[in-house]
Each structure stands twice: as structure tokens, then as C-alpha cells.
Amino acid sequence: MREPTEAWFRATYAEHYPAVVRYGLRRLGSMTAAEELAQEVFLTAWRRRADVPGQALPWLYGVARRVLANSLRRTEPVPAELPEFAVPAGGLDEVLDVRAALATLSEPDQELLRLIGWEELSVSEAARVLGCNRAVCAVRLHRARKRLQAALSPRPPIRGERTMSTRPLSTEEAA
Amino acid sequence: MNVQRVRALLGPADPARGIHVGVPRFDLPAAHDITPPFGQRPVATTVRKRLPWTVVTAAAAAVITIVAVTFLASRGQLALPPGTSPTLSPSPAGSPPIPTVPLGPANQCMADLARDLRPAPHDEPAGKYRYWEFTHTGRPSGPQNNQSWWNPATGEQANHVTGRNTNPFVFTAAGHIDALLLRKLGKPWVEFGFIAIPAFTDPHSPMLSLPPETRRAALRTLATTPGVTCAGQAQDPLGRTGLAITATIPSSMRPGTDKDQAPGVVKTLILDQQTGDILAYVAYKPGGTEVLTSIVVTARGWRNSIG
To answer: Of A81, B32, B34, B99, which sits most exposed with the smallest number of CB within 10 A?
Structure first.
């Protein structure tokens, strides 16, 4: 079993600090808040260094998740603006659509999808963060993905519903 | 495969995509413990030049304050003599001080209660876990009945919400309830009463069942927090009479996402006048006409098991 030495901590910190900051950035929308979160996470990691498993990152995400949950009286206003980022090939609209669709899902669905899609964890690692077993997590992921895709799909027109493109203008409107 | 599909779908919308995060220095020798000798600093300072120095200073100040005040609390040095203006901030050189206000008629009641605070029945350990119950109203999902356990020896904590959702976890290191409290209050952003008051009633932490020395330190802190004032006696939602202290969200603040984060909302703590225990936290609509959210503590004690 590895000894939780200072060298180990320094290596863990250097390896995972950026990932933990990005975790915070994705959920807090503010670099300052994300860095503060990362500081709390690594302070906890140092205090509880004997508990940190060999694969530290999911454990660190789990701590970050609890730190966020425990401070979710959300007395600090959360900035609405996200930092600038490179617009992908699909364009800004697609990005905004995906984010809007994600926001319509329940918080557990969102968190699982973020862990897989953004933190790029495996299902087993995400299960460790969320405190559930792998099989349950896999089922939840399948359902969450379906719900996300449903939220992204354009609503099929209701039978008999006329859209702007097909409905002829009335004489008043045409005038 | 779900994983690949999810990544393909969400990847382009990643808010952290393409953002470079540097690794700041971590002054580890000073972070060997949450309570190092006073004067040592567990500072995490960044080497990225584009980060504003104020951010670094503020973060360092928060950590330094936590450590220093925790050290003071553990040695009982926060129990200042009556009439002395207590402060949570030792204000190390170069760090911005946490604002405090002097004691006066508007806030003297808290200092008085801290001075005269009497032991509560739950102060004497009588089991493995500190145990408390409270009702939380004003949530979108409706009122919640909560039961919580906290083991002061190990930091292990568990919560039941309306008879379900047992989530055992280690909340804080053993014996660091003072650190927990003061970490909340040591943040530079806790400079306004309307933030400090709800910080005392965080329903997911042991804040609702504090040992007497921490209650005393907390009261002294509240007394000198800008915007927190005494409001005389008041009844909590269960009809219990206590000492009310209030803070109002100023009109200059932007409304938050929750309805109790709007300008004019009055945040009130109702405290037991003998023991200083929190009876209830209530957020009132502007004008005090309607309860927006409340946390009412209904029981405190000790248990030997969770559940």
C-alpha cells in the first residue's frame, strides 16, 4: 500500500489540480470560484490523505461534489456568463442547444452526463463519484442519454397543427 | 455505446473546453495540518501571471484566516472579554481584513448572550453521534423533515430527509467543528449579515448542533458582522420565544435564483436565550409579511447509531 507522503501529495496535486478546476468551472461558471473549490478539495485531500485511493481523480471529484452540495445554500450569486471558449465546428447554436437541453434534465441526470461527457470518466469511475454501483450507473446513463436526445430533438408537429410555413396568411395579416 | 455517444454529444458544449489551467504552487509545509502553529501559512499561490493578484490575495487570506482562527478557537482565545470587539480576522500582513463593526446597542445582545451562555442538555456527550432533527420549508419539493447524525470523533455524518436518503459521508476531519464553522465565516465574502446568518443554518452540516465554545465564538462573530442586528424577542414557527437577530438583503444586490435571495428579504435567526442554540432560521419576504423559507430545529441530543 502506498504511503501518503508529501511527495505523493505533490504529484497528485500537480496531476489533478487542472481537472478539479475544470470540474468547478463547468458547474460554477467562474474561474475564481472554481479555483477556490479546488483549494478546498485539495485541503480535504491532504487532511484525509490516508483515505485517498490509488485512482485519486474520482475520489477528488466526489469531494468536490460534496463541497458544492454542502454550500448549495448558494448564498453567492453564480455568474451567468461562462468563460470564452473556442466555438466548435458545429457552431455556437449547436453548443447552446446542447446546453439548453442538458439544463432541462434533472440534476442527477445532468451530473452523470457531465461526468461522462466532460470529465470523461468511465462508467465505473462515475459510479464511484456518485456512490452507486456500476450496473445502476450504466442504466442511469442510458436513460439520461435518451432523455438528453429527446430534449434535443425538435418537437414533432401535432396533428392538425399548422406552422408558419404552411399556414396561409389571412387577409388581415396579409394587409 | 452510451459513453461515446454522450461524449460526442456533450463534448463540443464543454464550458471548460480549450481553457488552460495552470498548477499553482502549494506551500505544503504550512498545510500539514488544519491547525498548524500560529503564523504558518497554508498558502496556495498561483504562478499564472494572468490571474489578478487580488484573487490570489483573497484566496490566501481565506485559508490563512481559517487556520489562524481555528488555532485561536482551539486554544480558547476567541473567548474575548466582554466589551472587546471580537474579530475573526487576524489580518496577516498583505491580506485584506474581514470587515467588522464595533459593538453597540444594535448588536450588543449577541455579545451579551455569548458572555452569559449556559450549557444545553445536548452539550454533555451521551453517545457516539450528535443527533438533531429539523424541518425545512420553502423548498420546491415541499417541506422536508430531516434527521442528522454527526460523529465528532471521526467526522462521519449522515442525513435522512423525510425518512429516506441516508447519505453517510465524512463531512469534516475529527474534532474540527470549529474549523468548519470558522471556515464558513472566515471567507472574505462573509462580510454581510445576510450571508453570515444562513451560513449558520446550513442544513447539510453540523452547524445546527454546535458545542458551547463554538456557539460562543459564533455569537461573537455574528455580533461584529456588518448588517447583523438585534431585533428583540420573537417567536419561531413552533411558537417558541427566543432572541431574534436579523439581516436584510440590501437593495443594491442583484436578485439571486432563489426567491429568498431578493433585495429586501429579511433573514432571521431565533436563538435560545439561555443556551444560544439555534431554534429556527426564517427568511421573510420584504416587509416581513410572508415566510419564504424556514429551518426549525425540533430535537437535539446524542445517539449511538444512525437511523
So the answer is: A81
